[in-house]
Amino acid sequence: MEQDFGKKTTAIFPAARNAACIVAHPDDETLxxxxxxxxxxxxxWTIISLCRKSDPDRAPKxxxxxxxxxADGLIGGLDDxxxxxxxxxxxxxxAITELLPKKKFDIIITHNRTGEYTQHLRHNEIxxxxxxxxxxxxxxxxxxxxxxxxxxxxxxxxxxxEKADLLIELPEKIWEKKYKIITKLYGFAKDSYEAKTxxxxxxxxxxx
Length: 208
Hints:
Blueprint: E1 18-23, H1 28-38, E2 44-51, H2 58-68, E3 72-78, H3 89-99, E4 105-110, H4 121-135, E5 141-147, E6 149-150, E7 159-160, E8 166-169, H5 172-185, H6 193-197, E9 201-207
Parallel strand pairs: 1-2, 1-4, 2-3, 4-5
Antiparallel strand pairs: 5-9, 6-7, 8-9
Helix pairs in contact: 1-5, 3-4
């Protein structure tokens, strides 16, 4: 599905009907793609978090966020311990394919293989796994997009890459709803890293 989206736009994905957002943690879907999902209510979204299935706090909040996007949600139990041990690539790919519904998606959005900030291994691992699955024809997507954010090696909060393939300026009301999901629904304080990070621009690379 080839479309000329343009660099800065809010009129995105006009032909898409089914799309998925595959992330590491509850809240990643909102931080990095929440505005995009809110701007495209005509799409049936499926949101997958690979971690925190057994988290009594984050898992219920994830499903409440999913409801805000009128989406389907699934959550997995990949290890997300503080020691951040590297996971086997084949194991991560298996976790993705087992959670992802067996249907064709017009678009799948996921982490960048280098992550969105410095540094969380689960972001990197999931981005790498999705790209490999997509290039082998094992990810049921017409197009794969990856988040395009960077933090200057911790010099500043994560922000959209200006030169990304797709850069979306969020309307104020859309950003406010996204921010509300982060602060009210997920419960992050206004002075938290997550709340201060919540981007007003969303950006993506097209994976080839």
